[in-house]
UniProtKB/TrEMBL annotation:
PANTHER family: CYTOCHROME BD-I UBIQUINOL OXIDASE SUBUNIT 2, CYTOCHROME BD2 SUBUNIT II. It is found in: Cell membrane. This is Cytochrome d ubiquinol oxidase subunit II. Belongs to the cytochrome ubiquinol oxidase subunit 2 family. It comes from Luethyella okanaganae. Its main location: membrane. InterPro entries: Cyt-d_oxidase_su2.
Length: 341
């Protein structure tokens, strides 16, 4: 395997890590209006991801930096052509991060509702637009001979891409709700499990439609078909496990579903990194989009040293904050947190 291909799959792995980890963060944020019956419930929900959400978000920074260094042509085309969509994602992530830090700074219910709304929107927008972006990459976009995107924002909002966005939105929502049931105790745990069962049914239907459509887009690539079938099986397994109250298995299988779905999309793309829908001669491939062999070699040694340390640190963080929480946990830690009328 040459270094360009190696780094293609490393970038895939980084995006897998981002979507699996920040995916349930998005889901928890989107679940606030469904599971947050009062202020204490909402604090429980936010505290399930409180210690890890910012660490999860760093995966997209590492993925973007790796994309910039390993595939500068791909990075330039993607970030210039999808500028408005990626800007909306960035603004949503900023709003969400600010809300986590500021919602508890004042006791007024209006203040908290304002930041809760920002958390919900800041979670839903990236969950939708990431799916739109990756669906467009797989489908192909119009590029000129210099690999510049020649379409508009509205061209990106085509039916296939919107279905991809709806798929990631529902996958992340269900993933997050399952995480809530895994991390909580009491009534909120049971309500999260029931909600995951209901949202899981819709997710299975929408995801199946997107996977089938992608099979046609990918010209029935054997690698894609195998990976998509495995992702569909894992998704159904996650729903069955949740139905039986096995939150740990359900969460694990949801993570496997998202990971396999992302890998399947990149497998459908390979060896292109951004196909041109108007003229295949203008497509970006691993070969014409990658950096020099020397740059990739230096990056490979850097990744070999630091990536295991990052993964080990994140694993340690999850282990430290592995205990379930509930309403009693919040009340005991902050007796003064009675919701303000």
């Amino acid at each position: 395997m040459d270094l360009g291909t190696l780094w293609f799959w490393i970038v895939v792995g980084l995006f897998v890590g981002y979507f699996v980890l920040d995916g349930f963060d998005f889901g928890v944020g989107m679940s606030l209006p469904f599971l947050g019956k009062d202020e204490v419930d909402r604090r429980v929900l936010i505290n399930t991801i409180g210690p890890v959400w910012d660490l999860n978000e760093t995966w997209v920074i590492v993925a973007g930096a790796s994309l910039f260094a390993a595939f500068p042509e791909w990075y330039a085309t993607l970030f210039s052509g999808f500028y408005l969509a990626l800007l909306l994602i960035l603004l949503a992530l900023i709003a969400r991060g600010v809300s986590f830090e500021y919602r508890h700074q004042r006791p007024e219910s209006r203040w908290k509702r304002w930041f809760d709304g920002m958390i919900i929107v800041g979670s839903a927008v990236p969950a939708l637009l990431w799916g739109v972006a990756f669906a467009n990459i797989v489908q192909g976009v119009p590029l000129d001979a210099d690999h510049n995107y020649t379409g508009t924002l509205f061209d990106l909002l085509n039916p296939y891409a919107l279905l991809g966005g709806l798929t990631t939105l529902l996958l992340f929502f269900t993933h997050g709700v399952v995480f809530v049931s895994l991390k909580t105790i009491g009534d909120i745990r049971e309500r999260a499990r029931v909600l995951a069962v209901r949202s899981g049914v819709v997710t299975i239907v929408i995801a199946a439609a997107f996977l089938v459509w992608t099979a046609f887009v990918a010209a029935f690539s054997p690698a894609y078909l195998v990976l998509a079938a495995c992702a569909a099986t894992a998704l159904i397994g996650a729903w069955v496990a949740n139905l039986r109250g096995a939150e740990g298995w359900s969460f694990t299988l949801m993570a496997v579903t998202i990971a396999l779905a992302v890998i399947a999309l990149f497998a459908a793309l390979f060896p292109d990194v951004m196909p041109a829908s108007n003229d295949s001669a203008n497509s970006l491939t691993i070969e014409n989009a990658s950096s020099s062999p020397y740059t990739l070699a230096v990056m490979s040694w850097t990744a070999l040293i630091f990536l295991p340390l990052i993964v080990a640190y994140q694993g340690w963080t999850y282990w430290i904050f592995r205990k379930r929480i509930g309403r009693a946990t919040i009340d005991a830690a902050h007796p003064e947190s009675t919701p303000v009328a």
